[in-house]
Amino acid sequence: MKIHAMALSLGVMLGVSACGGSGSTLGSTSTPTGSTGNNTITRTVDTSSTSGTTSTSGVGLGSASSTSTSTSNSNTTSAVLNAEGLWRGSSDTSRTVTALIADNGFYWVLYSAAGNNATTAGVIVGNTISSNGSITSSNGKDFNFETNSLFPLIWTGSYTAKTRLQGTLTYTDIPGGIVTLNTTHDSGYNITPNVATISGRYTGSSTSLANRNVPTAFVIYATGQLTGSRTDGCTFSGNVTPRLRGNIYNVSITYGVGCSESNSGRSTSSTGTAYVNPANNQLQSVTLNNSVNDVLLFIGDKQ
Predict the structure, then answer these.
(1) 108 lies in the same domain as 195
(2) What single string gives the DSSP state of each residue in 236-247?
(3) Exposure b/e, 77-101, CB count within 10 A at least 16 = b
(4) Do both 121 and 47 map to the same domain?
(5) Where in the sequence is the domain holding 103, given as residue range(s)?
(6) What mean pLDDT is predicted for residues 64-79?
(7) What pairs with residue 227 in β-bridges?
(8) Which of 5-14, 230-239, 249-258, 270-279 has the lowest mean pLDDT?
(9) pTM for the model
């Protein structure tokens, strides 16, 4: 989501690293002891408090300490002090943005092509820390589908819980690469998640840096199991479980033998979160592969 297409092209020409920025490690808000590179990811059980402030340690990538398929209404209606939620708005570069921030701080941001809301141009993934109206992220990664490139970034901003969220994204490898976001909270996030309610078949397409855009189908079962297939011959399986609160689900995917991800040795699995829009039953799922160098974005409508 760079300022201009020219800035994106310049970033590629300057050799923007596809391994992330300095000290950037998704899956944790700090680089784990013994880490040998920025692609290290800590897949731990979420130990963050649900009382407001997100923990700065043990933040799992879409993990949850609850494995049940439903949550009580009190989880959704209790006071929220951090920046969790579903946020919709725009950037100062004429792009529509949709941000989903989980209660443990893991987030993704979908953004459209400039001036074209119908096309998803990329997704930003990372971990946030938010409290007292301030939000930061030091390990953001922008997977840009327009240039098929990966750019590291940091994010600082302000918020009012369940009301508004503003942010400034600074691209660390692009001189002058700064983008601002202005969003408001979507009340669709306040719905209590339930896997049985969202179970069914979803058809649409999945996008990644490696495979670009491919027609894809997801099937979610009431038991929480997930199966899927792409028209390139890839089949995969996984699980869907509700987060502690909010209309948000953990998603884990294991790639099958027909998938280029596993056949090339790039990745065997992918983990992240998903949201189902109650207004139109559209599923938006973003999972980060275990090599932390690509995502699988799926957008599909329930059949």
Answers:
(1) no
(2) EEEEEEE-SSSS
(3) eeebbbbbbbbebbbebebbbbbbb
(4) yes
(5) 5-64+80-188
(6) 38
(7) 219, 237
(8) 5-14
(9) 0.78
